[in-house]
Write a structure and sequence with these properties.
With 536 residues, this protein is mainly alpha-helical. The chain has helices spanning 2-23, 29-43, 51-70, 74-79, 81-105, 111-121, 126-136, 142-169, 175-210, 214-234, 239-251, 256-280, 284-289, 291-317, 319-328, 334-345, 351-373, 375-382, 409-420, 432-440, 453-458, 474-485, 500-508, 517-529, and strands at residues 402-405, 425-429, 445-447, 466-469, 493-497, 513-516. α22 (474-485) links the parallel β4 and β5 (493-497). The longest helix has 36 residues, at 175-210.
Length: 536
């Protein structure tokens, strides 16, 4: 027990201090977790295939796939159909195919293993790239959208790759029998989940929300994710596939944004644990023994991915933007690591080959922040094409809108006046009864806790004109004001104060626009009393 506590304490301390240090260089936390796992394995001489730890860590990938499914929007994909389905398909097919053939015929790797290697290395890091592009605002540039489209297809492509691993690991069966068996299983799983999603899910979540207990809501979502994962696994699929389908089901409910906000901490903690187990598998002796192969193969894979993406989109947007998009997604990704680790544990990959490939992916991920930070300089060295055409694309979300926090009596009155003024607005409310009332009036009222930063981001807070606080809960008011202050972009916040003490509290929270409820009511009453009617 003492040894376990020592390992947990050491891992937490190393991960914390290492990620604080890496943050100074804009290196993602994924790398910190991998290095932490590597350090812990050598400090405590842990086994590199700790089965119980690997089972726990696998749920990091489960929750990652769940949140991917939660963001999976058919409408969104159709709006970017060329970038997603053409560019994405061509990138995965060409890079995966070329690496698979090279692995089989140049390195004499068995065909099934070569296919897994090829399509694992074809994937890029959605987590790293999207975080950096979002933080810099380049997600809305032309090259950012091209990269995003390919990344979306790669996320979808993870599902058939995981299915391939399941098919390849089944022994003593023909491929045709396995395909038919897989098809039947897919139909049964999809049918069961469709029935649950169509007829039971919304009613069940409504009952949970009606109970008005946050821990029950989180526990029920966790239960649904784990149940869908277990169902998929019972029919021979990966846990991740079930989680992805569960995410897609919940994406169609009105509780989507709150679910995402509540589950992100679980996902990030478990995903961090997964990357620690990846770090635990890195063998220093293999790095020393195969350092030349790691460098040459890694460089070859990166160059191949850059060349393929460049050639796919150069005729669509020109040389400069194509090169930017290609450099953005030239690395390996978190799903590459997950697939390689799963293939190794399923005996589809030799342990040494798996180690070499994992190290290649990790190194490519470490270089990504530096590449994206200096992408203009790199492109300027390669092409003399003038800097034009790479403009900002308007966000698919709304802008210059008002965010109303709360849909009580005051919130409803604010919405009524916003509608009369024809101003765009979004309302966030945590009381499901009020949410349903607003939606029955065809008003954009969404279920969510305004003290969750993710909820505010989903309301496009950084593009809004102002935030109006129409809630009476003092604890929530303090939390909300603190979160609004944490955004990089200054946000105009308007709130009402019922008395002098509340006004002092709001001023202490740096709310610059405070409406004194008592004073304004007094003015209105006096105007009516003096026969000066106020406008409706």
């Amino acid at each position: 027990m003492d040894n376990l506590l020592s390992i947990i304490l050491s891992a937490t301390a190393i991960a914390t201090f290492l990620n604080i240090l890496l943050k100074r260089f804009n290196i993602p936390t994924i790398i910190g977790y991998i290095i932490t796992g590597f350090a812990i394995a050598y400090l405590y001489n842990l086994g590199k295939n700790n089965e119980s730890l690997n089972h726990i860590a696998e749920f990091g990938i489960v929750f990652l796939m769940f949140t991917v499914g939660l963001e999976f929007s058919i409408k969104h994909l159709l709006g970017m159909k060329r970038d997603v389905f053409f560019n994405g398909f061509m990138q995965v097919a060409l890079v995966g195919g070329i690496i698979s053939l090279s692995a089989e015929y140049i390195f004499d790797i068995e065909q099934k293993s070569a296919i897994i290697i090829g399509y694992a290395l074809a994937l890029s890091s959605t987590a790293i790239v999207l975080k950096i592009l979002n933080d810099s605002g380049n997600i809305h540039t032309v090259y950012g959208r091209k990269a995003l489209g390919i990344l979306l297809f790669q996320d979808i492509a993870v599902i058939p790759i995981l299915l391939m691993i399941n098919i390849f690991t089944v022994q003593n069966s023909s491929i045709s029998d396995l395909l038919w068996q897989t098809l039947y299983s897919v139909i049964i799983v999809l049918a069961l989940l469709w029935v649950v999603g169509k007829y039971l899910l919304n009613r069940f979540l409504s009952l949970v929300v009606w109970a008005d207990t946050e821990e029950i809501f989180i526990a029920s979502v966790l239960m649904l994710v784990v149940s869908a994962s277990f169902l998929a696994h019972s029919f021979g699929f990966s846990y991740s596939l079930g989680a992805f389908l569960a995410g897609m089901m919940m994406a169609e409910t009105q509780y989507k944004h709150q679910i995402e906000a509540d589950l992100v901490p679980f996902r990030d903690i478990l995903l961090g644990l997964f990357f620690m187990t990846v770090g635990m598998q890195i063998d220093l002796n293999i790095i020393v023994e195969h350092y030349m192969a790691i460098l040459l193969i890694g460089l070859a894979v990166i160059c191949l991915k850059i060349a393929v993406v460049y050639l796919i989109i150069v005729f669509q947007v020109g040389s400069r933007i194509s090169l930017k998009a290609a450099l953005t997604i030239c690395q390996g990704g978190e799903f590459s690591l997950a697939i390689l680790a799963l293939a190794s544990s399923s005996n589809l990959l030799d342990q040494t080959i798996s180690q070499v490939l994992i190290i290649i992916v990790v190194i490519s991920m470490i270089t990504t922040p530096f590449i994206l930070k200096n992408i203009k300089h790199i492109v300027n060295m390669v092409t003399k094409e003038p800097e034009n055409g790479d403009f900002i694309i308007n966000s698919s979300g709304i802008k210059d809108h008002i965010i109303v926090c709360g849909y009580g009596k005051l919130g409803q009155e604010i919405v009524y006046r916003l509608k009369k003024l024809n101003i765009n607005y979004i309302v966030i409310e945590h009381d499901i009864t009020l949410v349903k009332l607003g939606q029955s009036r065809d008003e954009p009222v969404y279920f969510g806790n305004v003290t969750e930063k993710t909820i505010l981001k989903n309301a496009f807070i950084e593009n809004c004109r102002a935030v109006i606080i129409a809630i009476n809960n003092e604890k929530k008011l303090i939390l909300l004001c603190e979160i609004l202050q944490s955004f990089d972009k200054p946000i105009k916040v308007v709130a009402k104060a019922s008395d002098y003490d509340e006004k002092k509290l709001l001023q202490a929270l740096h709310v610059d626009y405070i409406i004194n409820e008592g004073r304004e009511a007094a003015k209105a009453l006096l105007k009516v009393a003096l026969n000066e009617p106020t406008p409706e």
